[in-house]
Amino acid sequence: MSRCHRICTDFLVTFFVFGSLLVCVQPGTAAELPEGVMPPDAVLRPAPLAGAEDSTIAAMVDEVNGDSIFAFIEKLSGEVPVQFDYGEYSIVSRYTPCQISRMAAEFLEMCFEAYGYSIETHYYAVSKLHTILVQPAGVSLMGGQYGHIFITLNTSEWPRSKSGIEMLDETLYGCDYVSGDTFVAVGTAGTVVRSNDGGLTWTATVTGVSSRLEDVTILAGGTGWAAGASGVILFTTDGGASWSAQTSGVTEAFRDIAALDELTAVAVGDAGRIVRTVNGGLTWNTVTSGTSNALAGVYFIGPVGWAVGASGTILKTTDSGLNWSAMTSGTSANLKDVAFLDTNTGWAVGTDSEIIVTGNGGTSWTSQTPPLTGVTWRAIDVVSSSEAWIVGFDFYSGRAAVTTDGGANWESRESTVKGGTANVVAVKEGTTTPEEEMILGGHYDSVPSNCDDAPGADDNGSGIGVIVEAARVMAQTDFERTVKFVCFSGEEQGLHGSDAYAARAQAEGTQIVGMFNLDSVGWNDDYFRLFSDDYSAWLGDLALTMAGTYAPTLETYHWWCPTCNWSDHYPFWQHGFEAICGIETWDPTPPHHHTAGDTAGLLDRTLMANVAKISVATVASVAGVDTTGSAGIHKPAQTGFTHRLSKVQPNPFNPTTSIVFSVAAPGRITVKIFDPSGRLVRTLIDKTMPAGSHSVEWNGTDESGRRMSPGVYFYRIQVGPFAENSKLVLTR
């Protein structure tokens, strides 16, 4: 039985009771649509009758609070700062390529953890990858689009480092190890960045050129070269700390460069160009390549070298690059890089997911099965006869893969690249069928495309605010199926986060019984729209019934619309899962859509509260409230976004006072005293504490035990993402 038919069967009784009609029809064909636009072939489904209230669901719905949603969005959109362990910051942008987007993900993790959820952060690579360097014993790194650099010591996880250039128009194309803890990477607009701490931090180096740099090669003694567009060649003798220009004598772009020793180097590029120096770059001479095809990669082991390029071109030299002969590659792909373990064993990679290997120095080549199709493999590094790494990109995002058996099998590894491109997943495990999952999701990223001003309060802070509020009111109730609250990134660049999540779920055989996606639900309350495809109509009808039952004041409609492909529900359809999308009225298009004007002040708290009620009721209905024993009794949810203090006594005080507070879930708690100027006077608590009531005394002294002067002071309690400030008066 197919998943669609099994799920439909599961809910036939429910729909009979609600007087609704369940329809499964033939799949539709997706078409490109502007975001939020309803196509002319969308079919309005008749509204089912409102159902009888469930007491547990009604209790959760009653606790939904529009003010709580709004207070959360103010912080997510950067209008109110957030207190992190490392300081107080405003999340001014959630544009996925920016480093600050990782701060937004961390804030979401804090919120869900404060409500008692476990977190399954799902990383994936959005930035296109262009370069990789793997060291068996030491730091390895990869880099690419948006100036992103990812480093690792064990190749099992690749967290992002701070490249020092993270600009949206910057790309890193090449990197190399110098010595000790020093690395160098090069890229767009003459960019060179250098790290002296093993890749943890990077600083930009002045090069004096604005041309794109494609590759860099540096020897252990510090001598090296960088090459790039317009025939540019730069020279360094201090490991990339400073650079001087050399004259190549050509205007074609160089794509790769290799240093043989401190005097000898070879660069290759467009139009089959190969240049060579044997005097440290004082002069560069063009040598005959025998081809006019663009050359993209070059690699040397001693005097033996190989160059690869367009239309499957492979050249070989045995005299340090002076003379070259053509080899037969057996492929017509545009080869982008080449690397050898020794003078016999090597690989070349390129477009059309091409991976070829040789065991006889390049005399003959054999194609290997790639882990993915439609990929341009941009770079390769060979570790041993069995292990090699490749990186590149497809139309949507960066890709990485590894082989540990000489290329007989290649494994995709982009999911291990942890660079701020993360889906945040909060999990409430089911009690009886935890393997079956119901998802409430939406994207937390925002546009316009910059790192300084992309508040995205409506699109899609509103959807995420509803999701977090639903998680709050559902936290204290048990469900038979597992409930996951998923906040996707990368939606604005092409549904990257949801596609990666759904693809992984399909590959792993995850039993997702339904997915409810929320996208822009806070601005126009004329009516609320639900969209479904052929197989998810049951879920749309259920959500519509929940709207009539628990949010009757919000006019809600359900359309059958299999061509509505502009939000995070769509990848779930593509990967075989049933999903629906909920979105506000888009008539007219929101004037603040995808602008810096998408701020929290435009949002409708009542609309968001009603959408939260529909979401809670729908997810709870699918997940199934566990009614065994006392599990099905709904316990009051934690307070909203701001925790409340119980009491402070006495106040005013002398010589001591007690601050009494309570928390609903375990977490890290800090209690600090400040003077009126904001200067920290004393930290009373800074540790993880259990749920329940707690108290701490302050005796009017600072950290050194010095008695403070009488006057007004302030205390601040921080519980995960929740914080509250209030006043204390120390008397004489």
Summarize the structure.
16% of the residues lie in helices and 34% in strands. The protein folds into three domains: 3-123 and 421-623, Zn peptidases (Aminopeptidase); 129-418, Methylamine Dehydrogenase, Chain H (7 Propeller); 645-730, Immunoglobulin-like, CATH 2.60.40.
CATH class of the largest domain: Alpha Beta
CATH topology of the largest domain: Aminopeptidase
Query: Which term fits the overall shape?
Result: globular
Number of helices: 10
Molecular structure report:
There is one protein chain. By secondary structure, the protein is α+β, with helices and mostly antiparallel strands. It folds into three domains: 3-123 and 421-623, Aminopeptidase, CATH 3.40.630.10; 129-418, Methylamine Dehydrogenase, Chain H, CATH 2.130.10; 645-730, Sandwich (Immunoglobulin-like). The chain is 16% helix and 34% strand. It contains ten helices and 48 strands. The strands form twelve sheets. Strands 1, 4, 5, 35, 36, 37, 38, 39, 40 and 41 form a ten-stranded mixed sheet that branches. Strands 10-11-12-13 form a four-stranded antiparallel sheet, with no helix packed on it. It has a four-stranded antiparallel sheet with strand order 14-15-16-17, with no helix packed on it. Helix 3 (55-62) runs antiparallel to helix 10 (605-623), helix 4 (66-76) packs across helix 10 (605-623) and helix 6 (457-474) packs across helix 10 (605-623). The longest helix has 19 residues, at 605-623. The chain is globular, with a radius of gyration of 30 Å. The N and C termini lie far apart (79 Å).
